[in-house]
Amino acid sequence: MSKPKVAFYWGASCGGCEEAVVDLAEDLLSVVERVDIAFWPVALDFKRADVEALADGELAASFINGSVRTSEQAEMAELLRRKSQVVIAFGSCAQLGGVPGLANLHSREAILECVYQEAPSLVNEERTVPQLATHVPEGRVTLPSLLDSVRTLDQTIEVDYYLPGCPPPVPLIGAAVTALVEGKLPARGAVLAPDVALCAECPRSATKPERLLVKGFHRTHEVVADPEVCLLAQGLLCLGPATRGGCGASCIGGNMPCTGCMGPTSRVLDYGAKALSAIGSLLDSNDEEEIAALAGEIVDPVGTFYRYSLPASLLHRRAEPASRAGGSSS
Amino acid sequence: MPEAELERRFDPRIVAFFCNWCTYTAADLAGISRMEYPPGVRIVRLMCSGRVDPQFVLAAFRHGADGVLIGGCHPGDCHYQEGNYKARRRFELLRMLLRDMGIEGERLRLEWISASEGDKVARVCNEMTEQIRALGPLRLRAAPPRAGRPSAREAAGEGAGEPVVEEPVGEAAR
Ligand code: SF4
Ligand code: SF4
Ligand code: FES
What we know:
Chain A is an alpha/beta fold. Chain A folds into 3 domains: 127 residues, 3-Layer(aba) Sandwich (Rossmann fold), CATH 3.40.50.700; 41 residues, no CATH class; 102 residues, no CATH class. Chain A contains 11 helices and 9 strands. The C terminus of chain A is likely disordered. By secondary structure, chain B is an alpha/beta fold. Chain B has 2 domains: 130 residues, Rossmann fold (3-Layer(aba) Sandwich); 33 residues, no CATH class. Chain B is built from 6 helices and 4 strands, in the order αβαβαβαβαα. Chain B is globular and about 40 Å long. At the A-B interface, α4, α6, β8, α9 and α10 of A face α3, α4, α5 and α6 of B. The structure holds iron/sulfur cluster (2 copies) and FE2/S2 (inorganic) cluster. One iron/sulfur cluster binds next to α8 of chain A.
């Protein structure tokens, strides 16, 4: 029997997910033994035309990382969807929008203006901005367009499975590939990670007080954290209570609080709202002014609670400026 | 007010989460006493203001609310001791988050209203309606539907999701 064909693709991402695949190390070799890699832009020299030449459904699976920000990424996602039996959203950017998703705090126009006109490090005297098509002596050259907002993969194409994490933990990748090859994937739509909160697998959970209240938060550079004690109990903003486990509490192992890359458990609709709720309930005060002051210590609530998930959130992106009075209701 | 003007007037939709023991009872009282407040205020009764999950507030905005009002018992009076303090703590964070998401402070309000303060329900609802009317409708861009969720789609009995195509940027910047 011929080996199943798989593809890897990256959208708006940092390259860390690719690194995680390489981190399979020797296991990668056994993966390579069991599958044929038909497309992997970061490592192999196959082109889009090679994917187009495949029959529909010929790929057993596509692992797509990164969020979707450009027309090219959307087209590639659609192409791979057509060619694949199974599409796996790989990493928090594909699953929830990821760090690039924070761009949904700004309009596309403002981003282009900042990057090409205003950035302090910029030298652009002719005020050149990217054009979809430009005529040069050699002919007409084109660029993909920037979509209006950052989208998750499943806001673009149908997705069968999700591998969460920034990047996904190596053991979970290995388990997913094995399940794929052995035909043991769970019901479609599943997140391929344990469905419990991180605190449940955290080695410090025994030191997390039953009823935890916090008088203010420290930022990580302001304190040297005790390496044994629950970080939240030390006033560090650890999102473990709201985050899915499965990473082996790796940040906690490095004495850093969890920032939530594994996303929500299956019972949560909006990760940021849930994390905000969990943290808000810990503020140790009943006094309105003091509560406001404690909350004010969290300087960037969107970046804190939606660091990996703004595009997947209920609000999806920043609201438009209000139209002002009198306007008719729509 | 002339009819044409009435037609054009923006009537804000406000979702009001009221606790069963104080504020909802007060709203009942306001009704029995024939006090007037705008019909755009839609009341949802919860057992306690501490039950207001921030997800409810965001879902209300997502589904068309121009404002969200949370009403609970006065400090010290919560039927469940501490629910209203919990509501206050989350509210402060949520307000900051909404501000950064471009949703003005006037669109989220928390009020302590006891069972006997029917007049306060009417006053707060009227005030908030006027403030939001002055701001205009909340303008949230529709999120692309999750083409992706096979489970959701199958549950809804739909076929394969149409890929969502957004208008690409015009000539990149101009
Ligand atoms: S809050 Fe953070 S440090 Fe504390 S038990 Fe949970 S994951 Fe571990
Ligand atoms: S501890 Fe949190 S941020 Fe770190 S890898 Fe695990 S889920 Fe991600
Ligand atoms: S019962 Fe009214 S606020 Fe808790």
